[in-house]
Amino acid sequence: MDANTILRIKPQLTRFLHQFDDCFGRVTTRRYLDLYVEWQLSNLQRKSIEPMADAVGEPPRNLQQFLSLFRWDQFAVRDRLQQYIARRHGHQHSVGVIDETSFVKKGHKTACVQRQYCGAVGKKENCVVSVHLGYATPEFHTMLDGELYLPEQTWHADRIRCRQAGIPEGIVYRPKWLIALEQYQRAIANGLRFSWLTFDEHYGSKVPFLRALDGFGQNYVAEVPVNFTAWTKRPTVLHREPAGHKKRGRKKRYPRLKVKNNPSVEVRNILRYSARMRPAKWRTYHVKDGTKGPMVWQAKRILVHLTDENGLPTGPHHLLVARNALNHNEVKYFISNAPEQTAVEILLRVAFTRWTIERIFEDSKS
Interior CA angle at 22 toward 19 and 26, to 5°? Predict the structure, then answer.
């Protein structure tokens, strides 16, 4: 945005930012919020502290203190923003997108930094990782929440290091899927509703995460790894001992799976060998128009059963397999708990909504 555009929208921007007044303890702190946001929206080539301070005529130290030293309630800001989005941008086709991003860090003093896989460079690197929840409708998308991931061995187990980095005692290790689940629950508490959730195979592989979303009644389309297992035919469950069965040894718990039962199968082998999926024809779908042209995928699906917390089969879930129409070696597997009559087009549209959070990451990092 140029200066004239910012000047034109300034009254609306000021009204929007006034919603957060009580999240800042001092008027001076609140004033720097306006300056910081305005120049983040500007067409400055570099939007670090010094160029912004020079452009607005402020000493760089003042903006640096606003970001690092001045006290403000970041959690209240997050909640207020989510409540605003719930009021102004609720939509019957809303999709929540869970993903993580990473930032390369050369030193070892930054909170939560360690050598780990870094998506920004596509390999293991010294970096920090954060988990995020995005929100997308056909006309709008934004970030709702984000939190640094605290590694277990290198940080959680070393509380002295945590204190030196300013990490509070109450911040402890949690797996990424649990961080994502807490972000989802916070958003729901702030009035947001998601028609769907979608996320990549790291989160899709975490069966407790899927069970929790099932328990909330939340529809999702989850990408899963090739070794994710499911039953193509619901196995037989015994609810009591068969008549005439002689009791031997320890008393068995019921309900339980029948001993001789069909095994669960990896999804890649379901695609290759299942008598239900293998003969099904691939159908072609135009998913969306991308920057490099139309995105076209071929897909087929069957209903499968997952394993619940007791090792028993769940209700039917969709197994959706999609392959790139131009490169059949690019294959993705998705699991969804949507109603059985849900069309494949809808499942694909939700699954490929994940690109919006990549756009949000790109916008925020630039």
Answer: 125
